[in-house]
Amino acid sequence: MKPLVMCENGGCLAKVGGSELTRLIGELFGDFSPEDSSLFNIYGVDMLFNLDFGPLVGDDPYMAGRISALHSISDIYVSAGTPRYAAIMLQIDKNVTFGQTKDILAGIKDVCAAEGIKLLGGHTIRSESSAVGLSVIGEANKNYLNRSKKQCVVGDKIMLSKKLGAGISSRAYFHKIITKDEYAEAVESMAASNSGVLDVFASVPVHACTDVTGFGFLGHLSEMLSENMGAVIYEDSIRVFDCIANQQTGAFFTSFINDNINYVLRTKKCDIDFDTIETLALVDPQTNGPVLLTVDEKYVSEVEKHGFYVIGEITESDRIVLR
Fold first, then answer.
1. CB-CB contact of 282 with 218 (8 Å)
2. What SS3 string covers 133-185?
């Protein structure tokens, strides 16, 4: 399989900054809630809709297709829904061969087959750069129809399903700071489905849920916090990929990271010095990153059975702090 020419800003590294996006949508449409998918009812059936699209991640075309598909589908899962139908959006540049394009689509096709999703078609164009994504329709869970990101409760434990630092890992691989073998752990994580969260929804009352993508862990956490809520992040509980654990922060403090810090600061005070790779990973743009949810402390052990770990807790405060 011929490798792709890797894009430096693959996946959610290319996302428009949260502060800019909030301003754009606010000025055009007024106040809005940044939910992961839209709920609608058709012929008496409650359905969810989502669309996601971005540059290819990594240099393996098949894995790039898988990651993009799983990233698009994830928003339905964290909305407690089951994805049913999808359409492909594929933008291919002149340097991508027929075989590579076929491999990208094969990755998408295999993911949809494994997740029980019917592919309905799509649209393709030639351009100066490559990008791919899916529009996805899912079936809503009747027990969570009125759910919202902003249903955290003070005292809730904050839990994640994967390590952080996929964006930093991709940048490190692009600049040859780490090897392909070292990068493999991050690729494997990005290529892992977030469907397991449905088992959590079925086993315990989840208060709030989203996934960690372009705005980083703290950016998406800030979207979950109401005006009178803050969070404590447990420094010793931050998990990053082995390939970046010993890296210095200088090479990775990009405009994307800075955008995400500013996005957090738009609503919360943040008493964190982003001077270690672990703290930098808290604002790292992820592609198909971990599921982020909050539950009452008494349910933590049950959620841990599904591969989640505690990284912090919801507090009655106006700030996010490290402890």
1. yes
2. EEEEEEECCHHHCCCCCCCCCCCCEEEECCCECHHHHHHHHHCCCCCHHHHHH
Mean pLDDT for each 10-residue chunk of the chain (323 residues)?
57 64 80 83 94 91 96 96 97 91 97 98 91 96 84 97 96 92 97 97 96 95 93 98 90 85 90 92 96 98 98 96 95
Q: Name which of 6, 1, 15 is nearest 216 in CA terms.
A: 15
Is the CB of residue 129 less than 8 Å from the CB of residue 69? no
Of 287, 260, 229, 292, the residue nearest 79 (C-alpha): 292
Task: Look at residues 54, 56, 50, 52 and name the one whose alpha carbon lies nearest to residue 84.
Answer: 50
Burial status of residue 293 (CB atoms within 10 A of its CB: 0-12, 13-18, 19 or more): buried
